[in-house]
Amino acid sequence: MSKSRLTAYLFLLGTVLIWGAAIPVIKFTLGGISALPFLTYRFGISALLAVALAPWGGLKLPPGRKIFWKTILYAFITSTITLGLLFLGVERTTVLDTTIINAIGPLIVVAAGALLLKEHVTHREKIGIGIAILGTFLAALEPIFKGGADGYQLTGNILIYLSLLTNAASAVLAKKLLRGGVSPLALTNISFLMGFLTVLPILALSGGYNQFIPTIQSLTFPYHLGVFYMAVLSGTFAYALWTRAQRTIEIGEAAVFSYLYPLISAPLAVFWLGERVTAPFLAGALFVGLGVYLAEAKKKRLPQTS
């Protein structure tokens, strides 16, 4: 294994540890602050970091209008749309449902890589993707199976699905921009600066601008800590690691590391947040696990007989 590939794997393992805890941290912090001011506060911290890192090339792009506008598009999709959908979804649903639905995120990225970057997808992978998607539907429809259509939770599950689709689009764009010479640090910082500049007016139009500062001032320390975790560790630091790794390996291979997130998020959901494991969750997890196995397991080569 080359040194650059080993480094990429270590960076991705770092993001697994950070992002594996991110959904439970978001859910906990939403207990003290709603999604829109949470996002604004979180993007505000990241934007300050982006400006602080500007003298070291933190906002520097290669010359060319095409690169510039692709970067702006990537930043908008990655921050405002994907994270916006994720936060709004987590606010309405459970961490366990989010964990199961997010499990197909890597498979969606693999499919996007095949369609847009011409990366190879086998017939076995296609079957696995289909089975895994079926499993996430079982989890997403849990509010209906529980004996009463909980529209609020169902809406949250749908928002999580949408965030996966936009995240796949941002992964493809990131790969193209990294190939074009854009630095991982610049991609990360511009994304969060864009997030702050676009979410702030949304907050104002929603009528929450006047209450934003009082809301921040009234937060207790654990909720501030949750916001800082998302802004600094799960934000600037983890995104920089992830985009740096994307430069070396295929987006489908990098996405496989996302399968490790539930090893951290599911126990935190049960033992920290007190969520209950349900029958639809277990059924969905079984199908997702089978689909992931079929999609990702390598076929064993039989020994040659003479």
Automatic annotation (TrEMBL):
User: Membrane topology type, per the record?
Assistant: Multi-pass membrane protein
Subcellular location(s): the record lists: Membrane
Q: What is its main location?
A: membrane
What InterPro entries does UniProt report for this protein, alphabetically? AA-Vitamin_Transporters (IPR050638), EamA_dom (IPR000620), EmrE-like (IPR037185)
One cellular-component annotation, GO = membrane
Query: Residue limits of the EamA domain?
Result: 7-139, 155-294
Mark the transmembrane ranges: 7-26, 38-59, 71-88, 100-117, 129-145, 151-174, 186-209, 221-242, 254-273, 279-295
The alphabetical list of record keywords is: Membrane, Transmembrane, Transmembrane helix
As for family, the record states: Belongs to the EamA transporter family.
Name the record gives this protein: EamA domain-containing protein
